[in-house]
Amino acid sequence: MKNAPNNPFLLLGYHRRKYFCNRNDEIKWLEDNLQNGRNSVLFSLRRLGKTAMIQCVLKELERSGKAEVIFVDLLATQTTEDAILQIARAVVQRYGKASSGAGTAFMKMLGKVGFDISIDPMTGLPSLSMGLRQGPSPAHSLESLGAFLAARKMPVVIAMDEFQQVCTFEKENAEAIFRTWAQQFAQIHFIFSGSHRQMMMSMFAEKNRPFYRSAQLKELQPIPLDEYRTFITRHFKAAKKKIDGEVVDEIYRWSRGQTYCVQLLCNRLYGSFEHANTEALNRVKQEVLQQENNVFINYFNLFTSTQWNVLRAIAKEEPLVNPLSKEVLLRHQLGAASTVASALKQLQNKEFVVQLGDEFLVHDVVFARWLRHRG
């Protein structure tokens, strides 16, 4: 098939439903919300396939001709102006070409958003950047963008990934600004997504926050093993390759069901072996850990000795329960409970550690395996 990937276990982005494992219920939930004018909030731990799932929904919407779609990644933004610039750039990417039919209204809108505009000599598209001049307020810039999008003949869907970033913006009530924007233009449908679970839940579920009960919430969970077993076996079989059932189970266990990690191991097995058995999987796991070795060694400089020891303890115990208990402190020689509590809180704030119920895990699965492997 034309443009089919050489390896069906993709590590980045979305290609086609054939290469996308399940998420049928979550996709249906998103599509139903969009069809009925409900904004959506999707959050999960990192690398569970949240972004790829959103891109799946957006691309199928675009292909169906039911909506025009815009995807914005806010991860690197630090101010409201940064965020609006990213949104404006996404709008330029979507409507800047002559074939989009935006014309005069598009250029007029760009003049109102408050950024310097130039024409890229390579593409002929408008290019936005932050200039030195005093531009309009963030609320006014968003209003100009919203008015342009709301005037489109077709419904517009905007997905803003890593939306929890707006909670970190200082000196401004960014949440209120974006909430007003979403409320002001009912013709625009929004998907707010993020990988910081607590921040996303707090933003949309706390009564004193601007976004309180303004959208439907769903937490993305790991894909069940049975679904992955079928998906993995099918792709190996289609290529006349073989993968043992116990290998699939071990991939899922080792990866903690994390989508990226499952895909990574399968990608390497598929690319290197005709028969993926236990020996092949062990070799791939060692290769993955060795590849990240230099990165993880340098992590040591990011932490205090107590934080590092806490990380190692969590990785060895997985999951770690009652981290401040006398037994755990003595078993891993962690020191005073108060010091460990402080270190644990800092690791959670930096998202190196995640708490699920009463269990603590090292967020990055490969890092957790590397820590455990080093003893």
Describe this structure in words.
The chain is of the alpha/beta class and 375 residues long. It has three domains: 23-219, P-loop containing nucleotide triphosphate hydrolases (Rossmann fold, 3-Layer(aba) Sandwich); 225-291, Helicase, Ruva Protein, domain 3 (Orthogonal Bundle); 295-373, Winged helix-like DNA-binding domain superfamily/Winged helix DNA-binding domain (Arc Repressor Mutant, subunit A), CATH 1.10.10. The protein is 49% helix and 13% strand. It contains 16 helices and twelve strands. The protein has helices at residues 24-35, 50-64, 80-95, 103-110, 138-150, 174-184, 197-205, 225-238, 245-255, 259-272, 278-291, 293-299, 305-317, 326-331, 337-349, 365-373; strands at 40-43, 68-73, 116-119, 126-129, 156-161, 188-194, 216-219, 242-243, 275-276, 320-321, 353-356, 359-362. Strands 2-5-6-1-7 form a five-stranded parallel sheet, with helices on both faces. Strand 5, helix 6 (174-184) and strand 6 (188-194) form a beta-alpha-beta unit. The chain is globular, with a radius of gyration of 23 Å. 36% of the residues are buried.
